[in-house]
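Hi V.,

You were right to ask for the full record rather than a summary. Here it is.
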Amino acid sequence: MRLVWLVAGLGCVGLGALGVIVPGLPTTVFFIMAAGAFSRSSERLERWVLGLPGVGRLVADYRAGLGMPLRAKVIAGVMIAGAVGASCGTAIGSWTWRGIVIGLGIVGLAYIFGRIPTRR
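Predicted structure:
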């Protein structure tokens, strides 16, 4: 089972790193998941994620229950809205799929602004 958690953590690190480059793909959430997976498989890699510049502090704060800074929430909300708008406006032709993407965007926004505490 430890190997499964290690592979999952490495996959999340890869997706998080890709999120740095690809607009609309989240970064921090994948590093949060990676830290969780590494906590079950590799203490050294967990410490590595928590020590990463920029994202390590956000992961540690989230794990401590401190939530996200307001600025990060606003940026995440703008990115979600932009990705949903761009997808629905250019890439998705079916109204059914547009409704699904819009609904998932609303769920994401509701979770970020309603469930995650705002760190001041």
